[in-house]
């Protein structure tokens, strides 16, 4: 039970001098904890003053405050009763890096994925109105998140639903990389347009009563429909929002004045706050993208603390796609605002005309790729497994149904570690497995990843979509060697890695092949790398069923609807009389912690596989004993007669 008194209650009474000290302390605390624990550094350094100003005006005990995405809400956590526990951020059993309802009553709506803020706030507002509860509902949303489909769909409903939402737009000009699209250009215009600066000057610095009068006048002019001459008009006003800004997001006093003003009005507002991503930390200010989401770093220099000889799957993918694009000019790469995370940023520089960052729009990206495929290009959409969930219908309706040859590079498949349940990519096998015409591959090594894309993009005639899923993992390897050794492989054939001495086989996919292989080698088991999850290599599987009494399948994904469940369905159709045991993730949301910790808890590593094998071997021995005994008994019975 958390008994910490929320700091926001005290902060309301701080002087501006005290607030300045608090701001510095919070920034320092965030830097210290994130550099040790991993986390979202730049975005959180940018929202310290914004959160303080907001909570001095709006009261989290009274008002409803929603954070879109939640990756920028560390100051919110620190102010709402988690100062003491903040140093456990993103650690196993520690506090989450995102908003979680079970963690605090002040995390009103859980988050992690972009674009949920305005839709959820709108729902909450309407639910409150049904019970005649009039509370302020405030949403904090970034300029990147504002461009996502869900945000825009919700904005489109504000007028019709008579919303009074107060939207605080935290505009730092950045998504993870530079923000893209027309709306981001509009925001740049608004930041620079002197008309708005005049209004800001008008409001700022005036006495409370004067400020209110000016605002009332402004609002009555807005309502009279003359906003276009007075304000110049902007897209937000077309959505029914009163627009105010831009306001300096590092000036608490200035923000307070505007927040107090909007709190007085029974009207929907959008306050355009400008902040700097990485504020107050030189290296993060210089390269906010690099420090958006960080692994362990030296807090003073920002240097990463990890072994250089390890290479991530994303990095190999990024390099491979450049090499392949040299050989085939039809290859294009698409990302939903994740050029860095997916390894595509170098491709973007090398082939700007063949690279599409479409913003945080996974659904758009899928259908856009479909359109490109129709016209003979070879689109590769690189996306995190968890974010591809957004585009389920597009995968079915726009891609698979039409057998469009789109390649999906599904990164962060499996357990992601510190980001936790909102970001774990554990559902993709299941949600893709059920879609007709969809093929799913999983490489078991960096080299196999390279070979898969090499084969798919240069040597296969694709008759529909193909997904390659790979984990948030780094392994030993030399990038140039991997590229030099790229070769064609039989994508749809399972590879026998070990010929065992028992009638037990392990069938593993992707990241599970390496630990399973070690166990198989120790216990003399037959071992297969099932690189094709769908279609099953039924020729090999038929032979496996003939040669083995026990089959253990292992995948880094949910068991329901996964690879193992496909094996079970097929095996039962063939009346296989042996036992198939499926290892994977049960019907739960796995927690945050290191990837190794979580995999261990799930039994998806050497130790877990070994103990399962021991159990299965025990069962097999007991079964064989029973059969032997039965046979003896039977013989005895016959003799007796
Ligand atoms: C559906 C979805 N797609 C992609 C992401 C990855 N992502 C997390 S934060 C972010 C950028 C958001 O930009 P913005 O809202 O401006 O926040 P900032 O970090 O600039 O404060 C992205 C693309 C996500 N969380 N959810
Ligand atoms: C908030 C968000 O969705 C991203 O910032 C994500 O946390 C990045 O994950 P990686 O660190 O795996 O790139
Ligand atoms: Mg931003």
From TrEMBL:
Residues 311-478 form the Transketolase-like pyrimidine-binding domain. GO terms for molecular function: 1-deoxy-D-xylulose-5-phosphate synthase activity; magnesium ion binding; thiamine pyrophosphate binding. One of its GO terms (biological process) is terpenoid biosynthetic process. Its cofactor is Mg(2+); thiamine diphosphate. The keyword Metal-binding applies. Coiled coil: none annotated. Pathway: Metabolic intermediate biosynthesis; 1-deoxy-D-xylulose 5-phosphate biosynthesis; 1-deoxy-D-xylulose 5-phosphate from D-glyceraldehyde 3-phosphate and pyruvate: step 1/1. It catalyses: D-glyceraldehyde 3-phosphate + pyruvate + H(+) = 1-deoxy-D-xylulose 5-phosphate + CO2. Binds 1 Mg(2+) ion per subunit. Binds 1 thiamine pyrophosphate per subunit. Mg(2+) binds at residues 143, 172. The keyword Isomerase does not apply. SUPFAM superfamilies: Thiamin diphosphate-binding fold (THDP-binding) (SSF52518), TK C-terminal domain-like (SSF52922). GO terms for cellular component: cytosol. Pfam families: DXP_synthase_N, Transket_pyr, Transketolase_C. Its EC number is 2.2.1.7. InterPro entries: Dxylulose-5-P_synthase (IPR005477), THDP-binding (IPR029061), Transketo_C/PFOR_II (IPR009014), Transketolase-like_Pyr-bd (IPR005475), Transketolase_BS (IPR020826), Transketolase_C (IPR033248). Belongs to the transketolase family. DXPS subfamily. Homodimer. HAMAP family: DXP_synth. This is 1-deoxy-D-xylulose-5-phosphate synthase. It comes from Kosmotoga pacifica. The gene is dxs.
